[in-house]
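Two proteins follow. First one:
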Amino acid sequence: MNSETKTGTHYSAGEFEAYFLGVMTEAAASLLQAVDPTLQPAAVPSGKIVVDSAGVVGFVGADIRGLFSFAMARTSADSSPWELHEDRLGELANQLAGRVKNLLGRVGVVYEVAPPVTLRGRQVSIVSGERLMRLLFNGPSVTYSVQVALEVLRPVELAPVDDEQLPASEGDLILF
C-alpha cells in the first residue's frame, strides 16, 4: 500500500478520511486500469456529478461506515446495451469495496460489505452529506465517477496485522 501509514496511533476523523481517500484512489486506479487501460484520472468538478447509472455498495464496521458508488456517464460513441453496464457497475462497486477492505485489513480496519445495488435513471447523483469523496476517470466512450460516503464513528487506530491473520489475497485459491 502506497498510502503513508502512522501505525500504532489513533487517527482523527479528518486524518483517517485523508488516509482512506489515498487507499481508495490506489484501489480504484488499479481496478480501472484492469478494466480499461485507456481510462485516465481527471479533475473532479465542483458541485454534484450527474450520471446515467450507478452501482452502490454499503459497508459498516466498528470504526467506520458508508457506501461506495461506481457511476458512469456514457458518450454518444457507446451504443452497448444498458444491461451490460448495470451489471458491470454493481460488480465494480463490489470489487472496489473488496479491494479497499483488503488494503485496510492489513492495518486492522475491518468492515462488512452489503450486496451491490444498481441504480439507473435520468440525472442520477449520489448525495450523502458533506463527507463525499470523489474520483473521476475519463475514457474515449465513458466517464466513471468513483465516490465514497464515509462516516468515521470514532478515532481509528491503525496497527499492522500478522500475515497469518490476514484474509486471502485477491486471486488466491483456498482449498477447504
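Second one, unrelated to the first:
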Amino acid sequence: MHARHRKSGTYYYLDTGAKPHMEIALGSDYVAAVQKRAELTVAKLPKDGQITFRYVAERYVREVIPTKAPRTQTDNMKELANLYAFFDAEPTPMESIEPIHVRQYLDWRTRQARAMRGTVPKRLASRSPPSTPDSAR
C-alpha cells in the first residue's frame, strides 16, 4: 500500500503486482484503506480451517508464479501437476507433510523418470543433425 499526496488530500492505493501495472484505489481514509487492503490481501482460509497442500499450492499459483518468466511459469505448472498427483491424491494437511514424505516424492519422481528414459535415445537420434562429410572426421 502506498500513498499519493495531492492538493485535495492523501489517497491510498494497493499495487496488485500484475503486468501491466495495476493499482486498486483504497480511498483517502487511512484506517479504512488499511482495512480494505487486509480484506484484499489476506488469503481466505478453507471452510474447514484445514490448510492443505492444494490450498498452499493454489496460493503459490496466484501469488508467486505470475512474477516469474514465462518459461519458468510453464515448468512450474507442469511440476505442480506431479506434486498434486502425489500430495493431493487425498487432501493432505500441510502440518502432516514431513521430510520423509518429500523424500518419498523424490523417489516416486525418479521412478517415473526412469520409466520414461527408455525413449530418450530414440528421441535424441531423431533430433540429431544429418551427418556431412566434413563432420565425419
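SUMMARY FIELD: The helical segments are 30-41, 53-63, 70-87, 99-117, 120-127. The chain has two domains: 2-41, 53-116.
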